[in-house]
Amino acid sequence: MPTLTEDSETNTNVAAPTGNLEITVSRAELLRELTAAQSVVERKTTIPILSNFLFEASNEGETGRLTITATDLDQSLRTSCAAKVKKAGACTIPARKLYDYIRLLPEGEISIKLMDNHWVQIRAGRSNTKMVGMARANFPQVAEFPASGAYTLSVASLKTMVSKTIFAISNEESRYTLNGALLVLKAESMAMVATDGHRLAHVEKLGETLEGISGEKKTLIPRKALSELSSLLNSTDAETMQFADDDSTLFFKMGGRVLTSRKLTGQFPNYEAVLPRDNNKFVIVRSEDLMSAIQRVAQFADERSGAIKIRLEQNELRLSSSSTDSGESEDTIETPYNYDPLVVGFNSQYLIDFLKAIGNTGEVRLEFKDAQSAGQMRPEDGNEDVKYRYILMPMRI
Q1: Which class for 168: exposed (0-12), middle (13-18), buried (19 or more C-beta within 10 A)?
Q2: Which of 66, 85, 98, 368 is 20 to 30 A removed from 177 (C-alpha atoms)?
Q3: Residue 318 pairs with which residues in a beta bridge?
Q4: Within a 13 Å sphere around the CA of 389, how many CA atoms are in the beta-carbon half?
Q5: Where is each DNA polymerase III beta sliding clamp central domain found (predicted)?
Q6: Angle formed by the axes of helices 348-357 and 287-298, to 10°?
Q7: What are 71-92's pLDDT values in tens digits?
Q8: What is the pTM of this model?
């Protein structure tokens, strides 16, 4: 059994490297960055350190800076805010508990100080809290944004592309290469495509100027990273962002935030082969009318398949569904149609996903070949710069 002196010596050794980090930071700024980072933190992790934030305080020139990192090993987010740094240093703090606690504090300054044994003291006004942290040394190393080779992308364009494709990504873990969207960069355009094997969403934005690209650059972005990227794109004022990659990692940099993600390996399917070429029967309807009709009819579709029937006849589009459990329903939309009659079945939820993605306004064009071939939907909005198409495999009804 160690003697008292030996024990206290051991303690001193443990505490010495952690007895630093002392900062003051504004609650509003800290909360804004914690909100951005907390969604990356792994909720149910078997590795305790991953449920912590890494705090690193440094004095940069005149101003101090607090850098906050969260990771689940697949992806990480590093963000920062201004802070008064009394002592530079690093510590880790339980993420969920800290986020919930800071949200409950009133506006004002918060002081954060690392104590012995990785405990962290947080003081704000009359509140004084100590949280049990973990050793900084246990926190995984997060890759740094590459010094060169980054591409500058438009935030607005990327935001549009993610929202128009993310819902079509496959949820089936076994279909590994479909668990992400493919980003295709060219010198004058960028495109994104996602598919789950039953449907495919493809959006292309023309009129971009991307420097440093000859030919095309294809990158597969995992669904989880895309969803995190979407949050960042929606909460930034920046007009452009930086995108880079190396052999194993993707990097997205917006303002003071850097999102990194492990790359998806494998080959994305040859989507160009499935884009319909000769869907020569088409009908144009108001998105709003179509959405309302589908939602009504879908109430009576078979719960498992969600299938509804689209019947095109002389100047009308008829939607119908039936199931032994709930009954049957039919809705008719009057619209010019002068081709041969056609009956085709689709998953109603897949149709609704597309109409939501185009914002449920304006008109939509539905293009068909026959009952066995893929249907194609696209907005009829005359926007020449953004080409959006949604391909849907028919269902047997």
Answers
A1: buried
A2: 368
A3: 311, 332
A4: 16
A5: 153-270
A6: 150
A7: 999 999 999 999 999 999 999 9
A8: 0.88
